[in-house]
Design goal:
mainly alpha; Arc Repressor Mutant, subunit A; Tetracycline Repressor, domain 2; 2 domains; 2 strands; 73% helix; 2% strand; elongated; Tet_transcr_reg_TetR-rel_C_sf; transcription cis-regulatory region binding; HTH-type_TetR-like_transc_reg
């Protein structure tokens, strides 16, 4: 059945715009007031849509939250992968530095993203927790692959990097959230330098 056009815009275009408004409203509300304090009615008011429209796009608040979580982590993973690829000929510390900059730019340049992805996502429900941990596992596999490349280049000793990757993810999340939400803003260069030190030590330690 052909897509109907009203006012020069198709049904698909209008739905995509409505979904984007809901995602933007979710980022604003979850990233400022917090997930627990944000109702579907509030989200709809901010987005300028009806509750019926909300349920046409998302089955629940949790679904909106995980969609936003996916958005920020898909962006971050893509940028970090691009950073490592573009610096393939650089020393380990420089590769890590560029990757950390890419991650911070993707997840914390806007403090709302940092709060959503580091705080609001935690402890919502068993389903959301499984979703968060699935993303953590994806990042662990990504970091383990980079560690193996460092071993192949003679920059690190061969070992099991799984626990190091899990620990690094926790450290990065805490540092990024602390930086994005600290009352007295710490220079981002200091945060990057600290993460580079932690990551390099995790990769090159015995």
């Amino acid at each position: 059945m052909p897509d109907r056009v009203y006012g020069g815009r198709s049904t698909a275009d209008r739905r995509a715009e409505r979904r984007r408004r809901l995602l933007d409203a979710g980022l604003e509300q979850f990233g400022t007031a917090g997930y627990a304090a944000t109702s579907i009615e509030k989200l709809c008011a901010v987005a300028g849509v009806s509750t019926r429209n909300f349920y046409e796009e998302f089955p629940s608040r949790e679904a909106l939250l995980t969609a936003l979580y996916d958005e920020v982590h898909e962006r971050a993973l893509r940028r970090v992968a691009d950073a490592f690829a573009s610096a393939a000929g650089e020393p380990l510390a420089r590769r890590v530095e560029l990757a950390v900059w890419a991650y911070i730019t993707a997840t914390a340049q806007d403090p709302r993203w940092a709060r959503l992805s580091s705080v609001e996502i935690v402890g919502v429900s068993e389903a959301v927790e499984r979703h968060r941990l699935a993303w953590r596992d994806r990042w662990v596999r990504f970091l383990e692959a980079e560690a193996r490349r460092a071993v192949e280049r003679g920059e690190a000793m061969s070992r099991n990097f799984h626990l190091s990757a899990v620990a690094l993810i926790g450290a990065v999340n805490e540092l990024v959230y602390h930086w994005a939400n600290c009352e007295h803003r710490i220079p981002v260069d200091e945060v990057v330098a600290e993460i580079v030190r932690v990551a390099t030590a995790a990769l090159t330690g015995p």
